[in-house]
TrEMBL record:
It holds the Pfam family HTH_Tnp_Tc5. It comes from the Eukaryota. Signal peptide: none annotated. This is HTH CENPB-type domain-containing protein. Residues 136-152 have a biased composition (Basic residues). InterPro entries: CenT-Element_Derived, HTH_CenpB_DNA-bd_dom. Residues 136-155 are annotated as: Disordered.
Length: 237
């Protein structure tokens, strides 16, 4: 199998035009071919500038790649250079979260974002977005993590369709037996007035997350819905 010819990206004359062979490809050209094999010649100069920048920062790139975290980085940035909120403001947000957790109230990522945006607005920082990367950086030094409350779900009967069909036949037979002319349909439903989220920010070292909910994530009241064949809906009771 013949080896594919490598483009040299050499600008200037060649043997046909100048009567001499072009110079061998430079190390920069080989680097461009290695990392950008499909690069068009029109964009060669931009890639060349990038490769020269890599060469100037070779020692810094090698030191960053030597660390465990540096191997996964696409850009090197000093720790704390992206921090927009001051440390005192972040401590205030952390105390705000801890106050909720002390009362057993879940603190979600959305609550953290809203609180951070409100703090940035008070400080006059219009460009702050409280993005997911900022939230990750905020949780790293303060060591909260997103925890989820788990609970075994209710299992439906295997013959649920059969039970529903038998109930429908029983109702129809009673209607015919008693001579009922109007059948009212009544059903129970839940009216939720408190809904606790299923996830909360909490310390990583804690194995048990306490949430004051009495085993329930929702507080509700049971109401009755009543209707008739004329599509008249009565008041809830």
């Amino acid at each position: 199998m013949e080896e594919e010819a490598r483009p040299h990206f050499v600008h200037g004359c060649d043997k046909k035009r100048c009567g001499r062979a072009p110079p061998p490809p430079s190390q920069h050209s080989l680097t461009i071919y290695t990392f950008f094999p499909d690069q068009v010649e029109e964009k060669y100069q931009g890639r060349r500038v990038l490769v020269l920048k890599w060469a100037r920062n070779l020692d810094n790139i090698a030191a960053t790649c030597a660390s465990i975290e540096g191997k996964r980085k696409k850009k090197a940035r000093a720790v704390g250079s992206s921090t927009i909120l001051s440390p005192s403001t972040e401590q205030e947000i952390l105390r705000w979260i801890n106050d909720f957790r002390a009362e057993g109230v879940p603190a979600t990522a959305l609550m953290l974002r809203i609180k951070a945006l409100a703090a940035a607005k008070e400080l006059g920082i219009p460009d702050f977005r409280a993005s997911s990367s900022w939230q990750h950086r905020f949780k790293r030094p303060h060591r909260p993590s997103m925890r989820s409350r788990t609970r075994q779900r209710q299992v439906s009967p295997a013959e649920l369709a059969k039970v529903a069909a038998e109930f429908s036949e029983m109702v129809q037979s009673k209607v015919a037996e008693l001579g009922v002319s109007i059948v009212y349909n009544a059903d129970q439903t839940a009216a939720f007035f408190e809904y606790l989220p299923s996830k909360t920010l909490n310390g990583k070292e804690e194995k048990t997350v306490w949430v004051r909910c009495g085993g329930k994530s929702k507080e509700r009241a049971t109401v009755m819905i009543l209707g008739d064949p004329k599509v008249i809906h009565f008041l809830l009771f």
